[in-house]
């Protein structure tokens, strides 16, 4: 069996560190197994998906060094395929049209809450007669399409990270909406769980590797694989990335987008190395490697179940190691955009002869590429950049005498 994995980001924001780390684990697994790594852009949320986010995601993956073998495929161009699958489910009576209004659903959930029950859909439209359906249609009610979930089932799978997982189907919230805004003859917008399963089947995905926040989706998706008569792939749920207080890393913790890390002066190879360590450790305890080196040793046996704490000091340390060892030529190429951005007018053609020794000089003391701006200032601007307080100090009589003598 050829391993086929995918990363399926939604372009509703820039490439998030969590998505990038999921991509890293997919990439490592694919390269280890000599398989294929596929890129699918899940852009079905028309309002929130933006082409500039897709660009940012592609650029971020490329920057980190994760080449993909197929794609990018765009989920929005595959809606017909999703609708065909829904039609199959309808034809086999594994799905049905439900006509509940939002108000009716709210009332139903409120009543459950009053009784101390967890809110869920009570499957009330599962067995509508054709007369009842026609009456709702005549009222002009739009339908959603719900996939039947057998409450008596327990969904089980052997997770490559978490071991055996079992999920009671009765905890999945009742019959699941797979398409919105449908009528008696049409199928509206297919929803995430259905679209993902149809695409993963169509693309021959053998292993679904994604964040553990998708575990409940996996239980629903396994039921859909079975209903569609497809073989169920293997699943690996990777641990979440946490901040120092143990909560899920979010915007409040500062940067979360790969492009932000780039702006802050991290080197792609150091960041990719660090992300590999977020949840995985090498058998030989080595902590410094390229993605290709990590791929040789990668296995899910060494992926942690517990959340991975994001450690800025460690990332800084790794970054500095990469910078300290870099040849002046390579360092210059990375540093130049930061110098130019800071407004220094340096040019590779005319200034290389003194920029290279400058890189050799400052390289061993850099932690981030942005440090090079400050450390090059004197050489580039011939100004020590004294502030007013320092200038006043330097005018003091004693100091002037000292400097004259010096
Ligand atoms: N578009 C989904 C996400 O970004 C994909 C999840 C999956 O891998 O199935 O969370």
Key phrases:
alpha/beta, Rossmann fold, Helicase, Ruva Protein, domain 3, 3 domains, three-stranded parallel beta sheet, 16 helices, elongated, binds glutamic acid
Fold blueprint:
Elements: E1 4-7, H1 17-33, E2 36-41, H2 51-64, E3 70-74, H3 79-91, E4 95-98, H4 102-114, H5 130-138, E5 143-147, E6 154-159, E7 163-168, E8 176-182, H6 192-202, E9 207-211, H7 215-227, E10 234-238, E11 241-242, H8 258-263, H9 268-277, H10 291-297, E12 308-309, H11 312-324, H12 328-341, H13 348-362, H14 371-381, H15 388-394, H16 397-405
Parallel strand pairs: 1-2, 2-3, 9-10, 11-12
Antiparallel strand pairs: 4-5, 5-8, 6-7
Helix pairs in contact: 1-10, 3-6, 6-7, 9-11, 12-13
Could you explain how this protein is built, in words?
The protein folds into three domains: 152 residues, HUPs (Rossmann fold), CATH 3.40.50.620; 122 residues, Glutamyl-tRNA Synthetase, domain 3; 81 residues, Helicase, Ruva Protein, domain 3, CATH 1.10.8.70. Helices cover 45% and strands 14% of the residues. The protein is built from 16 helices and twelve strands. Helix 1 packs across helix 10, helix 3 packs across helix 6 and helix 12 packs across helix 13. The longest helix is centred in the first third of the chain and has 17 residues. It is elongated. The structure holds glutamic acid.
């Amino acid at each position: 069996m050829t391993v086929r994995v995918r990363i399926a980001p939604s372009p509703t924001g820039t490439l998030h560190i969590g998505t990038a780390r999921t991509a890293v684990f997919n990439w490592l697994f694919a390269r280890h197994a000599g398989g294929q790594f596929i890129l699918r852009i899940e852009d079905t949320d028309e309002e929130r998906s933006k082409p500039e986010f897709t660009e940012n995601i592609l650029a971020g993956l490329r920057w980190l060094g994760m080449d993909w073998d197929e794609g990018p495929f765009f989920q929005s161009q595959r809606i017909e395929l999703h609708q065909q699958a829904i039609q199959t489910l309808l034809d086999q009576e594994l799905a049905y049209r439900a006509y509940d209004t939002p108000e009716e659903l709210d009332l139903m959930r409120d009543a459950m809450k009053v009784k101390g029950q967890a809110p869920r859909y009570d499957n009330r439209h599962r067995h509508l007669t054709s007369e009842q359906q026609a009456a709702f249609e005549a009222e002009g009610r739009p339908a959603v399409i719900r996939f039947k979930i057998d409450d008596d089932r327990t969904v089980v799978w052997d997770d490559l990270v978490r071991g055996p997982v079992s999920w009671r189907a009765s905890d999945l919230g009742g019959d699941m909406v797979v398409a919105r805004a449908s009528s008696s003859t049409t199928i509206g917008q297919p929803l995430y769980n259905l679209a993902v399963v149809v695409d993963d089947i169509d693309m021959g995905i053998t292993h679904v590797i994604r964040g553990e926040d998708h575990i409940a989706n996996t239980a629903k998706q396994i039921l859909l694989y079975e209903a569609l008569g497809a073989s169920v792939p293997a699943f690996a749920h990777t641990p979440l990335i946490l901040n120092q207080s143990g909560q899920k890393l979010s915007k409040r913790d500062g940067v979360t987008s790969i492009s932000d890390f780039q702006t802050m002066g991290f080197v792609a190879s150091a960041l990719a190395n660090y992300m590999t360590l977020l949840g995985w450790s090498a058998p030989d305890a080595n902590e410094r490697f390229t993605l290709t080196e990590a791929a040789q040793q990668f296995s899910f046996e060494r992926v942690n179940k517990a959340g991975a704490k994001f450690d800025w000091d460690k990332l800084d340390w790794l970054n500095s190691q990469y910078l300290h060892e870099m040849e002046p030529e390579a360092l210059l190429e990375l540093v130049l955009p930061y110098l130019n951005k800071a407004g220094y007018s340096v040019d590779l053609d005319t200034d290389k002869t003194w920029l290279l020794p400058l890189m050799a000089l400052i390289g061993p003391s850099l932690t981030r590429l942005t440090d090079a701006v400050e450390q090059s200032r004197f050489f580039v601007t011939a100004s020590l950049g004294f502030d007013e307080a320092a200038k006043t100090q330097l005018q003091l009589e004693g100091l002037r005498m000292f400097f004259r003598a010096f």
